[in-house]
Queue: 3 jobs
Job 1
Amino acid sequence: MYGKGLRPLSIATVAMLALSLSLVFFYAPLDADQGFIQKIFYLHVPLAIVALVGFVVGGVFAIAHLRTNNRKWDAYSYVSIHMSVIFGVAVLITGSIWAKASWGHWWVWDEPTLVSFLIVFLMYATYYPFRYAIEDPERQARYASVFAITAGAFVPLNFMAVRMAQSLVHPRTFGTANGGLPGEMMLVFLCCLATMALLWVTLVKFELTAKSASGQVKRLRRALDAPAPGAASRIAPEVS
Amino acid sequence: MTSSRAAFAAILAKDLRSELRTLQSLPAMALFSVTTFVIFRFGLDRTSLSGSLAAGVLWATLLFAAVLGINRLFVAEREEGGFDAIRLAPIDRSVLFSAKAAALVIYLLALELVAVPIFALFFLHDLGGLAPLALVLLLADLGLAATGTLISSMAVNSRARDLLVPLVLLPLVVPLMIAATGATEPLLALGGPGYHRFGTWLMVLGLYDLIFGLVGYAVFDFLLED
């Protein structure tokens, strides 16, 4: 039932990806200061925004899980955080490449946004060993939700504290009143942001579908009394 | 209202009494912090510290010593069936959170009462910064107690208890450490205490305490269900 609408969604995502990439390379003007390397901005920043929003969305699903006690929301929360962690790896790698190209170092400590993102990423990376350590599935789902809510509250606080501790070097793209981006760049950027959000939603849906399918197969096997091939994942929640 | 206040007092008194009788956390925390100071003395090869180095050594040591206490906070509840008793008792379960957090604050204050004077004796020339430092310590302890109690109560019910507390707690307290060291650094600066951005950092500490106090209080109920 999770597979419904997966095909049009995938096609739309691929089309948007193609459109965004061609806009980035053929329409968006070259940055006067940084030149061609500035184009990584259209990948890096949307990825970062989508990953952070995904973490918070995982927290919201966790609240829904604790309120309704429906295990479906725990699976949603798990998959959201899982996908955002994967996006987070991409953010750190693209951020590193951009930093090397524009500041000359792979890693810059006095750059608040990069450091905050690393701390948030490390926080969510502990989500897996944390889940894995709790055996009872009921309790695992509940504790994981508590973790997701706590970490969701931690994200904005962490950004504030790190920003206060350091000087300001990072381009503050949307800090100023009218965005500081020329119209064409802004258009391309928004298009890329929509694409990344769509990609995130599609991948989340894919993972939920896969989990639901393997859950169904497992139930059918149990009904037929056939042994399951290989051990099932002990971390990931099951979807009914 | 009165019943939860009575329950709070009873749980807190029980914790403090059992700690006083068994002495299983506090002496270890104090000993650990003194040994760590000695290790820093040789690791950094410095006989006196000031400014950011002093703040870093003090807070890193206090944080790791606190992790020792946080690890043990709920062990007795689990092993002796304290969780079941709380579940059976006709009281609000959040009381356990506030009582445990209060006990942890008292442990941390006791630890600092030992560790900070020894730190000053070992490394500091100028003791003028210690009085305002007390305020920073108190605010940081409140935040550390809120997150520590929450993580400890979850870790104790898992397979990897001693592993989980440092793993999950350390990234969670990074903002707290940024603010605490930011406030401490000018206080321990060479040539007398300074108050550069002192108020701002205290506000960040207060905000951290408030947010995680509320989050802990709100979600703690779900950790006790079974």
Note: Chain A is about 70% helix and 0% strand.
Job 2
Amino acid sequence: MSTPDTFFYFYLGFSVVLGAMILYVISLFLRWRHLKQEERHLSEPKD
Amino acid sequence: MNKTPRLLLALDVLAAAGMLTTIGLVFLYAPIERVMGAVQKVFYFHVASAWIGMVGFLVAAAVGVLYLLRRKPILDVAGHAAVEIGLVFSVIAVLAGMTWARPVWNTWWTWDPRLTTAAIMVLVYAAYLILRSGIDDPEQRARFAAVYAIVGAVSVPLTFFSIRLFRTIHPVLFGGDTSSSLSDFSTDPRMVLTFFVSLAAFSLLFVAIFWHRIRLGQLADRVEELKLNREEQQ
């Protein structure tokens, strides 16, 4: 029995895992940046 | 809060190095399995993601118990962080499992006990995030989240042991039937090494992301406090 060619599914699975992890890390970074901006804005003395 | 602690930066570097090593081992070192072909390599990411998912949920339950005992806001922040990370990695594990299942089982999804309990676990924790966002009072929210995380943790052992408790087509990695397709992997030391390096790398990644997520939660609380102060001044 020859080994089946399942490279497509391997690359698909790998892309899904890596892509989802990168997206989550980016979301953490964007949320942090947004909150920092908001914190700076709220800490400024009001006119 | 402003400066990232050096230990966290070191953890980030270690986690990134661990992930790169894992990718290198999976692509260049681990052999291609004879029966399933290259798709078997998805297993190294699938199991490690599932592991992190379950660790996240168990940490949330442990932190929930501590919150109920000590009532410290940081424990609620940590519980929220652990559930979010656990959910992200559980979803990744399910998606990776689906890409493996398509060529091996000839279907993306089947209502096998392991897949069903994993889906229930994901839904339980997705509901946690939705429900906690609907409670305005911080103390009530934290109390609710702690109890929910403790009760929800029942789904973790149920998912883990489902392949041992019920008849299933899902491979059993440890202590399973030797005819299981993945049981053979233990005979190849390159597969074993890649598997444990992957587990260690994902575990390091969990610690690093968990720390970052707690800092994010603390910052969100601080912003919330500033908003309330400003509203009171008006």
Note: The mean pLDDT of chain B is 92.
Job 3
Amino acid sequence: MAVAEMGSKKFDYAPAPESRAIVDIQPSYGLFIGGQWVDPTDGHAFKTISPSSEEVLAEVSEAGPGDVDRAVKAARKAYDTVWSKLPARERGKYLFRIARILQERARELAVLESLDNGKPIRESRDVDVPLVAAWFFHYAGWADKLDHAGFGSSPKPLGVAGQVIPWNFPLLMLAWKVAPALACGNTVVLKPAETTPLTALLFAEICQQADLPPGVVNIVTGAGDTGRSLVEHPGIDKVAFTGSTEVGKMIARSTAGTGKKVTLELGGKAANIVFDDAPVDQAVEGIVNGIFFNQGHVCCAGSRLLVQESAFDEVLESLKRRLSTLRLGDPLDKNTDIGAINSLEQLTRIRELSEVGESEGAARWTVACELPDKGFWFPPTVFTGVSQAHRIAREEIFGPVLSVLTFRTPQEAVEKANNTPYGLSAGVWTDKGSRILWMADKLRAGVVWANTFNRFDPTSPFGGYKESGYGREGGRHGLEAYLDV
Amino acid sequence: MSDRIDVRKTYKLYVGGKFPRSESGRSYEVTDRKGHFLANAAMGSRKDARDAVVAARSAFPGWSTATAYNRGQVLYRVAELLEGRRSQFVDEVAAGEGLTTRKAEAAVDEAIDRWVWYAGWSDKIAQVHGSTNPVAGPYFDFSVPEPTGVVAVVAPQDSSLLGLVSVLAPVVVTGNVAVVLASEERPLPAVTLSEVLATSDVPGGVVNVLTGRTTEVAPWLASHMDVNAIDLAGAPADAVTELQVAAADNLKRVVRPEATDWARTPGPQRMLAFLETKTVWHPIGV
């Protein structure tokens, strides 16, 4: 092409797909119980698809109550006979091994996660999987240091933990659950989400590769019924759940009176608060990261943008310009920013709530971009003119939809931010340090990000106030959930 | 018996990630417990000690500002390499300390596990020994542990690997850099450890290993004005007071020698000894 022609032509990215050849997906999977792959005795099979193409990836077993019972018994046996008897540092060395294998198989895990979940490979490769390994490294080191963690001398494990995790960060949520549980000396039965079971099943293989004693980690796949069988099983000592507030409340009710220790990491409707002295470009990056990271399938997403009135025009203009540069499409393409919505069910919910937003009077703005023919997609969407009474300001949409509200004073920002039954996270953007700390004091949220958003680290406790759940995951604080203290 | 003549190795110093000979041109014989020749080791001098301090100081900015996670990863990798050299360490510990193979194996295993134990502390020490301080006023006030700088380590004389690991790992895990004076009569595990470090991800200069006469070199480290702290674990009893007096010139942090069972899991004391506490105040207000 001649240079003269290039002058008028808009450059575009060439496709840059990550190869999926590195992943060997089996046609069907059993349950991982007692260190073995077993067929379900009273369950059925279901299919897991790639949400970006609707292609069937594999057939997965649905564990029935009898299968869950087998898994719990295997976990109990492993707890009684092996894991609780093992010196703490040997337990730690198993976790270090797992961490190393996770690093060594990082690309495989990232590709599989993007296939099964729909998230961009850039995120699974650069965020999810490195954090997964980091989580195991961090908690590996804790295994023989529990005496120093501030829970008294020789704190004891609980026993068998039943863990139910969501589909938005399948492997990362597994790591948040399994690593601290094992480090503290518990054994686990984990149920991954029905739409994203594959990386958990690959993790089971990694446990075998690390020679982890059979039964220490058991993985039962299935949907809500399987989760209920696990949570309500009398043989478990601990329930750890990440998911919706609705299900969290059901678990709180069903575990009442059982003596099971419960931690819940539930929904959110975080306020991302931008003051007029904030550097706009950085704030806009933070807003985009806050709500469009992982297609907005993030419990701590900054789904309510609170902008100081005097900065509204500038921030919105800059935000729309930035959103227009986002690339939506093939999750395995290394240039993709926005991947697929995880399921048709979730897409339907996002569509419904967006329609409600319009019908209640908010103004809808959507990035003009082509959506692929197959799969589940929703373009980045911004609502302005949103009032606190609107459903899109109150309910968790769990998609790439941002509701914009305004405020005049810091006090008003705090009132609006806290005006929600949730309390998982919040963001504050301002140049003034004292105001960040003043806001952080006033915000009723478990994590406050200042001039950044959606940061995660194994040393940093994460969890919610109010109806966003209870208990913390990460760091020294995260040990408490798995110790008898 | 084979006619083959074995290839004998020259043991050198480890300074700034390189293996120089002693500038003094001296060496000394290392023998096993029965007096049989094992190797010649470099006899480090005052100048070697000063070179090592310079190398350590220049490595401090990078190592102390690496993330705790990164330091933990780098140190865990060292443990993996130690495991690969296990049999060599067993031979050296058995010969140097006069232990049976079984006891030497136990000491080496403990040393590797000890290294892992300390590696795991990298991203935990601040959470356990830092704090937010509820001051009576509108201030956010927090205290964080920070590495003190260049730490001289007079390694234990008897426990040539486990003792060495037990005094070196707590220094570097928190971001300090070290100049180690190896056990005088049993320096070989220290030299092998330096070969492990040289092929690991630990940046050159973070750990420097000197061999030689303890009473000759230790005073220069104790009095050096660019050394921030000194662990006297392996200092001869009759030199301890003098070394502490020398260390007082720039108020080095000093860990005094005491009878220690190196096989026992330690507490955090050796890490805390080489950490400063920094407290930060920041106003809270709209």
Note: Chain A touches chain B through 28 residues (CB under 8 Å).
